[in-house]
Amino acid sequence: MAAISVNGLTKTFGKSNKALNGVDFEIGHGEMVALIGASGSGKSTLIRLIAGLIEADRKSGPCCIDVLGQTVQSGGRVDRAASRVRPDIGVIFQQFNLVDRLSVLSNVMVGTLGRISRWRGYFGIFTRAERLMAMQALDRVGIAPTARQRASTLSGGQQQRAAIARALVQQSKVMLADEPIASLDPASSKRVMETLKTINEEDGITVVVSLHQVDYAVRYCPRTIALRDGQKIYDGPSSALTPEFLHELYGSSSDELILGSATSVSGAGKTRDRDDDHEAARAARPPARTPELAVATA
User: Fold this and answer.
1) What is the three-class DSSP state of 231?
2) Which of 16, 26, 24 is nearest to 61 (CA)?
3) In this predicted model, what pLDDT tens digit does every residue of 273-291 receive, in sequence order?
4) 29-52+88-285 has which CATH code?
5) For residues 270 and 119, which has the higher predicted lDDT (pLDDT)?
6) Helices in 87-185 by DSSP H: which ranges?
7) To the nearest whole number, what is the mean pLDDT of the chain?
């Protein structure tokens, strides 16, 4: 059983803006997978659909999303079973979604709300064990000394690590990170990605992270799913994403995907033969679109 299973996923905004078109893939337990694509390729929409935050198209055929064996949505409707799996899905947003006036610790404690009674959550009543769990999470992401500070006093990288700590307190089994380093400087970006990688390796948490920066996908994520115009155009080893192959996938749009010196480092810290990776990449690409489909999605 896969941790995430997506079948026939289509999402249209308005009458004709097709954000996703027939996307299929499975992600195994404990994988760390990057989603890449230029702006408007459908990455953020895909993450929100997996989390059950928005609904897919209702007249799009056998569209179904399962997470941890539970149906999140099917046929364009969020399933009743989604409420059982939502506490196991942590979502990390680009804009952090912290309450500025609350302390860092209080923001992290929000992660418990899906697992405690409503009245305790409403009045902010947490047990000693829950507070200890929050402090341990802050320590794991390296910002425990900031626990009593207002969230607004943190840097962008620190706020993103607080958001990751919140997902740890939530006891997520799947983490979905939507452009978590898009607004961060290189040093903070590296720290956030290292934190996600450590959580993936030490806790076995399935991590899906959308990225513009392909070099971070190559360095930290063994597998990459690439989207273009709402369609999956590649699913395979991140180490195959050379500048030449990116240009083959995206054409002139590949300039938007930042590719740095990290292309020589694989997600597991091991080198592989680049030619073998490129051949594997070609085999991993979906079949070319039919002329009819190309016209329909133009």
Assistant:
1) strand
2) 24
3) 444 444 445 455 554 443 3
4) 3.40.50.300
5) 119
6) 104-109, 118-123, 128-140, 156-169
7) 85
